[in-house]
Amino acid sequence: MCRKLISLFPILILGLILQCYPNYYNRGDPETMYGLLYGYDFSELFGNIPYIEISNQQNSIKEGETVDFKVKLSKASIGTKQVIVKSDNPAISINGNPSVTLTFTPQNSREEQILSVKAEVDENLVSEETNISFDSNWHSRIQLIVTNKDKDSQSILVSAYPENPSFERGSSISYKVKLAKQPNQNISIQPVSNNIDLLQYSAEPLIFTPENYNIEQNIDISILEKMDYLSKDLSIEFKSNILSVIKTFSVIPNLEYIDISAGQGVKSGYTPSIAIDKIHSKVLVSVFNWANDYKLGLFRCNLTTVDGSDCQHIDISAGQGSNSLRYPAMAIDEKNQKLLVVATNKSNLSKLSMVRCNLTTVDGSDCQYIDISAGQPESSGMTPVIDIDKANGKFLVATQNITNGYKLSLYRCNLNTVDGSDCQHIDISAGQGNNSG
Questions:
Q1: What are the backbone angles phi and psi of residue 39, rounded to the nearest 5°?
Q2: Tell me, what's the pLDDT at 384?
Q3: Percent of the chain with pLDDT over 70
Q4: Could you tell me the strand order of the sheet in which 270-277 lies?
Q5: Residue 234 has what pLDDT?
Q6: Can you tell me the mean pLDDT for 202-208?
Q7: Average pLDDT over every residue of 252-273
Q8: Cα-only R_g, the chain
């Protein structure tokens, strides 16, 4: 009997030692020797420790998104065990931090703990690899490679100074350009306009590198002062081989549109020619008026006209009849206070003709018709242009002379000519030959 008790003594001593062991965990009934021996997991004493299980792990996460990695132990631990989980790159965070510590106890070893692994948003266009390590003093290191997969597309940031929706002609706009994201390689941005006749700027491209991508570069745009009564919608495209941005704006007209047709209706203003009567502060426009039986017409308005309601239409065809005086050109003889209108007279074999009226003519009854073709034959007075030679008391008319091989012709007449007999024709083609005028 004593020998049996002696044989059980080592076992009793072992149980007492284990009961006092700080990491001891009894799965059985500690009140009995059987429970004591059953309850202790001897496997860790022989190197059979629990291992770390990681589920739902991803090796690639899109920028801005989060994936929950789940971590637990393969079996219950004898005591408390800790695992330090760490990211070596700010591109990936764990529960919002660079590192976290997981604590497993005998009670929660088999329960999953959540690691919220997030691919952080950054300003570059690079997909970055990150090492996530699991370290402890009881388990060999586990290392996962997780890529922050960049999902952003590059964009060109353009701001205008001043930031106006519309600009006057003659003004300037300065565009400041940069990239939103760091590129992997150089990006060339070329400005392109939809109206090269109205906009002036340097055609040199802007070069952005991975180093200077976020530094603003300037493009200065000048709006030319070309006359126009219409508003223009313009655009500048900042264009690269991978993307582009279009900036639009309007240009305010520098001419005001006013209907000065004086009730003449449609087709009443063909081939207009304009002159200013400074003496009477009037604007005068001569036309080939289809609406008035294809006759020569004159529109007279106040220089300060706002809506054209003060404009007057006058028939100044001087009895030449329908379809006679085409392609009118006009000048003011201030010395004699006369209005001179030269035209191609189809009723007179398309020769050069003139109508002279008083500047104050009311109804055209004082207008005088004069043949100033100076003996030139048919089709010698096409598309005339007139000017006044004040110094010599002459008016000069240039025409395309079809009969003379489409050469340039000049007619010179006295300002006070009565019948055109004093008019002189001169071939001024300067040896350029046929079809030169």
A1: -70, -20
A2: 95
A3: 88
A4: 270-277, 282-289, 295-302, 312-315
A5: 86
A6: 90
A7: 89
A8: 49
Report the pLDDT value the prediction gives residue 118, as an integer from 0 to 100: 96
Cα 199 to Cα 426: distance, rounded to the nearest angstrom: 42
CA distance 354 to 411: 12
**Residues 150, 388: Cα–Cα separation, whole Å:** 74
Question: Which two tokens mark 252?
Answer: 């305010």
Q: Are 352 and 345 in contact (CB under 8 A)?
A: yes
Would you tell me how many other CB atoms lie within 10 Å of the CB of residue 13? Answer: 10
CA of residue 298 relative to chain centroid, distance: 46
Q: Please tell me the predicted confidence (pLDDT) of residue 21.
A: 42
- Let me know: does 208 contact 178? Beta carbons within 8 Å: yes
Query: What token pair was written down for 377?
Result: 């034959």
3-state secondary structure of 46: helix
Determine the Cα–Cα distance for residues 399 and 389; give it in Å rounded to an integer: 17
Give the DSSP H/E element, type plus range, for residue 48: none
* Residue 257: half-sphere exposure toward Cβ, Cα within 13 Å: 6
Phi-psi region of 407 (alpha: psi -120 to 50; beta: other; left: phi over 0): beta
Contact, 435 vs 428, CB < 8 A?
Answer: no
pLDDT at 437: 74
pLDDT number for residue 46: 53
Q: Which residues pair with 156 in a beta bridge?
A: 179
